[in-house]
Design brief:
This protein has 476 residues and is α/β, with parallel strands linked by helices. The protein has an 8-stranded parallel sheet with strand order 1-14-13-7-5-4-3-2. It is globular, with a radius of gyration of 21 Å. It is built from 17 helices and 16 strands. The protein binds 6-O-phosphono-beta-D-galactopyranose.
Length: 476
């Protein structure tokens, strides 16, 4: 019978600012994501899913579903409201209680130290990740958290989605006005994060007995539009800059040469100081968290005038910041994959991509992986009898999980599946109009309602998947 191994971790994921709410309660101060979300036209993060007040109820539901693990993130500005200095006792108490509640219910906590939410105090002080001081301040915060929970937590996720932070740099960072025209900043921010995440890995190795550390990367396999040699070359270019650029750092301790030469030629490469690469090498990663939603497609850029103009504005960060049609002159150009289906939000639905990326990454680095995000954003409908028939989400997870299984059958090491998300959480770009959960949160985007939790069809489906360790995926 096809089943996942006994010790395979089953659960889901959320991040602090998208789940907790209580954005300025009990001593917490604002993070850059609290502030960024005030202006999207959608709901902000002030209440979100109200997890700060309802986490016990949510964890009870996780237990009912059969969870053995759960991924969440710490809010830096809940613990250190000013980013540095005094610890907020009520903030840390919240995480003490959250972690103990998970453990009491037999659920392994997998925290992420950083999920987009730099304390606003540090953005105001020196621009956040733009300044190298952020590396030391992050390290001090990480050291405090790792020390606090070193006896309770084995797997530590350092930084969420550096790839997405670079691609959507003005959305995932609060960038002061004067830097908006300078795309070098996004690679500099990323370099500082590389140092910070390496230091956090090293701290886990030093402080946690048998501790394991790694980043969670937002990863899309990149396909060439067709078999034309130029388009295949564009695929290699894009793989180098969008994927290897991050994974080579985590697992080889270096930047890929091709991508770096390209950035240098365009004068947008990060400044690297003496000793930086040693720090990065020392802070090696033990595993990779994979956040997979959709694959991407590229072609070699045409040299038409329009595209050159587009490319210039893209490099200056003014245009194309949603990344979907990103164009890097002389390197690659994203485009819609004519052979792939898309969801309501124009994201490719590509379950084969899951097997492809797991095998591809494993061939390159041979490291253990855990799926730290995977999910289907949709306009869910609550029926009058309080049900949500999200068969599209079940279908998405079913086909993606089967792909994980296929990769594992070929020897790829995957030790868990933590999809996005358990309860509905605030979408990074579409408030509560775009839902991902297996548990419905009764609120509208702008109206709070009673925030009641309602199990969707996907909850019952996932419960059965966990109970049968995946065997039910292959029935019918
Ligand atoms: C990932 C993020 C999550 C999550 C997810 C869905 O990139 O790590 O925080 O929100 O994407 O994205 P969205 O909410 O924009 O649909």
């Amino acid at each position: 019978m096809k089943v996942m191994p006994d010790n395979f971790l089953w659960g889901a994921s959320h991040s602090a600012y998208q789940y907790e709410g209580a954005a300025q309660e009990d001593g917490k101060k604002l993070s850059q994501m609290d502030v960024n979300n005030y202006n999207t036209g959608f709901s902000d993060a002030s209440v979100a899913s109200d997890g700060y007040h309802r986490f016990r109820e949510d964890i009870a539901l996780m237990k009912e579903c059969g969870f053995t693990a759960h991924r969440f993130s710490f809010s830096w500005s809940r613990v250190f409201p000013d980013g540095v200095g005094n610890v907020n006792p009520e903030g840390i108490q919240f995480y003490d209680e959250f972690i103990d509640e998970l453990l009491k219910n037999g659920i392994e906590p997998l925290p992420t130290l950083y999920h987009y939410d730099m304390p606003m105090a540090l953005v105001d002080k020196y621009g956040g990740w733009i300044d190298r001081q952020s590396v030391d301040d992050f390290t001090a915060y990480a050291k405090f958290m790792i020390n606090r929970y070193k006896d309770k937590i084995k797997h530590w996720i350092t930084v969420n989605e550096q790839s997405i932070i670079v691609e959507f740099w003005t959305k995932k960072n609060y960038i002061p006005e004067e830097y908006l025209q300078n795309p070098q900043i996004k690679y500099q921010i990323n370099h500082h994060m590389n140092l910070a995440q390496a230091k956090a890995c090293k701290l886990v190795h030093e402080l946690v007995k048998d501790g394991k550390a790694g980043a969670a990367i937002g990863y899309s396999p990149i396909y060439g539009l067709d078999s034309s040699p130029k388009n295949m070359l564009a695929m290699l270019n894009a793989e180098d800059l969008k994927n290897h650029f991050f994974l080579d750092i985590y697992f080889k301790g270096q930047y890929p040469k091709g991508a770096m030469s390209y950035l240098k030629e365009k004068n947008i490469a990060p400044t690297i100081l003496e000793g930086d690469m040693d720090v990065i090498k020392e802070g090696y990663s033990d595993f990779l968290g994979v956040n997979y939603y959709a694959s991407k497609c590229v072609k070699y850029p045409d040299e038409s005038l329009t595209e050159i103009i587009d490319a210039k504005s893209n490099l200056s960060g003014k245009k194309g910041d949603m990344g979907a049609y990103e164009l890097m002159p002389d390197f690659y150009q994203y485009l819609k994959n004519p052979r792939a289906e898309t969801n309501d939000w124009d994201w490719t639905v590509d379950p084969t991509g899951m097997e492809y990326l797991l095998r591809d990454i494993y061939q390159r680095y041979e490291i253990p992986m855990i799926i730290t995000e995977n999910g289907y954003g949709a306009h869910d409908v609550l029926t009058e009898d309080e049900r949500v028939h999200d068969d599209y989400r079940i279908d998405y997870w079913k086909t993606h999980l089967k792909s994980v299984y296929c990769a594992m059958e070929l020897g790829v090491e995957v030790f868990g599946f933590l999809p996005w998300s358990f309860v509905d959480v605030l979408s990074t770009s579409n408030g509560y109009n775009k839902r991902y959960g297996m548990v419905y949160v009764n609120r509208e985007d702008k109206e709070l309602l009673d925030l009641k939790r309602i199990k969707k069809d996907s909850f019952y489906w996932y419960q059965n998947v966990i109970k049968t360790r995946g065997a039910c995926l292959f029935e019918e």
